[in-house]
Amino acid sequence: MSGTWQDRPMEFRRLTGALGAEVLGLDPAAPLDPTDTAEVYTALCRYSVLLLRAPDLTPEQHMALGRAMGEIEVHSFFPNLGSGYEHVTILDSADGGTASIWHTDETFLPHPPLGTITWAKEMPSYGGDTMWSSTTRAYDALSNHMKSYLEGLTAVHDFAALTELKARFGLATYERYGEEVLQGRRTTHLVVRAHPVTGRKGLFVNPTYTTHLVGLPPDESDLILGFLYRHMIKEQFTWRHCWRQGDLVLWDNRSTMHRVIPDFTERRLMHRVSVVGRPE
Ligand SMILES: O=C(O)CCC(=O)C(=O)O
Known about the structure:
Shape: globular
Helix content: 10-25%
Number of strands: 15
Number of helices: 7
Strand order of the largest sheet: 1-2-3-13-5-15-4
Mean pLDDT: 92
Strand content: 25-35%
Low-confidence stretches: none
Oligomer: single chain
Radius of gyration: 18 Å
Bound molecules: 2-oxoglutaric acid
């Protein structure tokens, strides 16, 4: 264990049986040395979601934290902080930026982000929690029959699937959304993928971007995906976080899905930095 903050060793306190740990003894606003970075990355892979406190985090510090983990992305369609800060995405409920449908980030890309670091800048006085589910725990709990059935299946993930969701659920449309749809961003991924670090198998489908399972009749694909989506969000695979201003959450995009609970009316403003996915 290393000790960069107030001479306390870094500690990880588990938050639920499924996923999530609070990180103690690390100031995420201070530059991370390689030992701390490696410890945080290993913990991220192990616990899937990490919670830290950073009440006064600046965009520079936020980007530096992301860069400690890898290359950081300019998000494909969400707005960002602008010149020099394009890597810091803004999710502002005042502009409809509330991601309330379960998803794994940008799975329409061949290499979706490996992780995301979100900072709560302004929170409503109640509501607006975020939930994460462990896709590895969900996989583990499937029957052996279902595991065999899913092995080797692939699924299509399509950015344009958002178009229907936007119409049905009244989600916000951003300036760059139309351009992105025209790019035809769509790819296939294995339904069951092994995590590149832990080797644990997890389910890699989500209700936002996955359209269908390749090679199956549409009704069978819909039935299986519907079953998996209900299964993946069972309470025992999830953690629900009630944010305070200044909370910072890192999630492993390879072993989780998440959603925001849209039960608030006051402004909810988040800054987020995502780390580009690597070929696995
Ligand atoms: O606002 C949040 O808590 C999470 C936002 C989200 O779903 C995302 O950044 O992909």
